[in-house]
Design brief:
- This protein is an alpha+beta fold.
- It has one domain.
- It is built from 12 helices and 4 strands; from the N terminus they run αββββααααααααααα.
- The protein has a 4-stranded antiparallel beta sheet with strand order 1-2-3-4, sandwiched between helices.
- A hairpin with a 5-residue loop joins strand 3 and strand 4.
- Helix 7 packs across helix 9.
- The protein is globular and about 60 Å long.
- The two termini are 14 Å apart.
């Protein structure tokens, strides 16, 4: 009966999408109204932190428009993700206290600087060492994009080899499987979740890969000015890249079109690295997070 009710609401109101993120010993889920982070504590219990969603798009509806909403979604995901990571580290016993506001800001600033260095500065600087293309700006931009993509893939592969990250990737798999179960209209039970795929078209991994590919085409026609101008131009145009990429991934999540599904397959394949098959206790955590994050009118249908 619960499954029928949810599907019936879906038909009347339109599909409700839920996003998520793996954190330390847990999962964060974001629904249209709530963000919930569930963490397995050292005692074995599951603690859940639930907060209402406060998006800047509520104050500025213009930011909900296509190609603008992508940048907003990316920025808000970074902020909420950092807060959830901080909470999960504290709840899992890896930190004595959560990060303060300024500590979180410094951590995010450091992460952004490192991303600029590794994914913008290094590839655009390294191109000059490739022989035979010095007078061909278009080719240099394309090769720069390929180098950026290669660095990204090497980074994903490298972190996937570490023990701690592999465990996070197991929670990532639990997140995807649980979202698939919810979107299929099935009761949120461990057995139901286990049957679903750990690959999901709206995954952040898929989004980042699309960003890397889209950036190749966006930056290809910028010419080849000085190093500083190249880095600045790529930073300035990142909202454009994020906006296009966000629309692509939204389309992938809404359609079964064969062409679109073929185009996103590389992003799905990459998830074989960034997800692992979860254990039952990890699925339980993901279920708790999603149950807390789903819309208020569905809370009474929570499965035992």
């Amino acid at each position: 009966m619960g499954t029928w009710n949810r599907r019936d609401r879906s038909l009347r109101k339109g599909k409700v999408y839920v996003g998520g993120q793996a954190v330390i010993e847990g999962v964060m889920m974001r629904g249209p109204e709530y963000i919930a982070t569930a963490v397995r504590t050292p005692s074995g219990d599951i603690t859940v932190k639930k907060d209402p969603v406060h998006s800047i798009t509520e104050r500025f509806p213009l930011l909900k428009k296509p190609f603008l909403r992508g940048t907003v979604a990316l920025c808000e995901s970074l902020v909420y993700g950092m807060k959830s990571l901080s909470y999960s580290a504290q709840a899992a016993g890896e930190e004595d206290e959560q990060l303060t506001g300024w500590q979180m800001a410094l951590t995010m600033a450091f992460s952004i600087v490192m991303a600029i260095v590794f994914f913008l500065l290094i590839p655009t600087y390294a191109v000059k060492f490739i022989p035979g293309i010095a007078d061909h700006a278009f080719q240099m931009n394309i090769i720069e994009g390929i180098l950026r993509l290669a660095i990204f893939l090497l980074y994903i592969w490298g972190i996937s080899l570490t023990k701690d990250i592999r465990r996070v990737f197991e929670y990532h798999g639990a997140e995807h499987k649980t979202i698939w179960t919810y979107e299929s209209g099935e009761p949120l039970t461990v057995e139901n979740v286990k049957r679903h795929s750990r690959l999901h078209p709206r995954c952040g991994t898929n989004f980042l890969l699309i960003v890397m590919v889209v950036s190749i085409f966006v930056f290809a026609f910028l010419g080849w000015p000085s190093l500083i101008e190249r880095v600045l131009s790529r930073i300035i145009l990142m909202p454009v890249v994020a906006g296009i990429s966000y629309e692509v991934i939204r389309l992938a999540g809404r359609t079964d079109n064969a062409v679109v599904q073929t185009l996103i397959k590389p992003g799905l394949w990459l998830q074989y690295l960034t997800t692992r098959e979860p254990h039952a206790d990890q699925i339980e955590v993901a279920i708790k997070a999603l149950e807390a994050a789903k819309p208020a009118d569905e809370q009474e249908h929570t499965e035992p």
